[in-house]
Amino acid sequence: MSLLVIGECMVELREVDETMLVKTFAGDTYNTAVYAKRCNPELEVHYLSAYGGDAFSLAMNKQWQQQQLNTDLCVYLPERNTGIYNISLDAYGERSFSYWRKGSAASELMQYLDTKMVIEKSSQFKIVFFTGITLAIMSDKGRQTLLDLISSLKQKGCKIAFDPNYRALLWNKQDARNWIQKAYDISDIILPGLDDHQSLFGHQSLAELLEYFSTFNVSELVIKCGELGVYGYTKGTHATVEHVPFVPAKVQVDTTAAGDSFAGAYLNGAIEGMSMNDKLTLACDVARMVVQHPGAIIDEKIELV
Ligand SMILES: O=C(O)C(=O)C[C@H](O)[C@H](O)CO
């Protein structure tokens, strides 16, 4: 049984000093795929994306292989390029991003993907994961084709997991709200951040989020509340909430991929059949390790927990 992750990977640039940049590869869904695999090297993790014919795309593809991801479903678009993003950090290691990704290969994935072929393989995928960023980079037609594909995979028995990962730079708020709600409608496992919901829907508290999600048919709801910790709810047991308090990292170097690594560890735990408390604890531990190192993907020699 495997995990299928759908989205975009890019060139990641980060400044070493005023004249030097480090180049690696990252993107929210890719980060999740990598950390799920690192948590359990036995787990088959499929990464579904598109890559171009430029030199960066080819190097990126090599990196996907090195991370032991299964890329059989990926689409090659020789006329397109890979996207690029840059990480800027403040004095507390809080990150912000700049993007050069319009028209990237991944943004056109759904125009070229053989969705029937993916549906035929559905029995392999226990969980299918995508994010608000996966939707944000696509045209409306691409977004609808993606949601149709996800719905078909759900009908075939795959569990659907979704993280809204709202990035205001990538789309307007109204579009983001509409499409993220459509994604919630078909998701079994939802991993929202309170901050995303504050920006998108004006929700100010955990209680407001719970009220909002009470109308969706979610089997696992994991709400990340920053310094208030994380809360996990399992369908039918909304009264027996699991709460894991926030424990700060020894040092916070770069918060890039904190949420993505959390998702990777959590989904790995879900596939392994862990309890809600164990999944949340593992996910928090992994995210805490990731923020202590620069960039989205930390050196593989570093033990995650
Ligand atoms: O912001 C994006 O679109 C990215 O995917 C880049 C980062 O790796 C990601 O946001 C980290 O969560």
TrEMBL record:
Q: What are the transmembrane regions? A: none
Domain Carbohydrate kinase PfkB per the UniProt entry, residue ranges: 3-299
Q: Which residues form a coiled coil?
A: none
* InterPro entries (alphabetical): Carboh/pur_kinase_PfkB_CS, PfkB_Carbo_kinase, PfkB_dom, Ribokinase-like
Any GO molecular function: kinase activity
Q: Which CDD domains does the UniProt record give?
A: KdgK (cd01166)
Name of a matching Pfam family: PfkB
The alphabetized UniProt keywords are: Kinase, Transferase
**Assigned protein family:** Belongs to the carbohydrate kinase PfkB family.
Q: Mind telling me what this protein is named?
A: Sugar kinase
Which organism does this sequence originate in? Shewanella electrodiphila
